[in-house]
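User: What would this chain look like folded?
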Amino acid sequence: MNRLVPHRLSRAARRACGAATVLLGLSACLSMTGNAAAGSVSAGEEKSAACAACHGAQGESAGPQWPILAGQYPSYLEHALKSYRSGSRQNAIMQGFAAQLSDEDIEDLAAWFASRPGPLQTAPRGY
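Assistant: Here's the prediction, encoded as structure tokens.
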């Protein structure tokens, strides 16, 4: 039975293994940044003044009628705001605010609120 030992592989096979290792490493690095927001945290903080009335200055709302934004995934926040803006998600108050937002504004707000520590936690897998 032949065992695959690096020094017994052909030069082409070693190159292919090396290339595959580099590609796997790059894809791992890219996947680790998958939850990073594309927007600017500092710009999002500046743009969040209107949000603070209901959601709190740091994204932790005072009451259960307003969702907690602090610590949410940026992709979720972006999706929610774009859905309010398009009308596919219904809430008269949020639709009015979201209608005024550009894609850049939405990315910035998502980056700001995602960067805030919040009380929300993700349940462990298999829970």
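DSSP finds six helices and no strands in the chain. If you want, I can go into more detail on any region.
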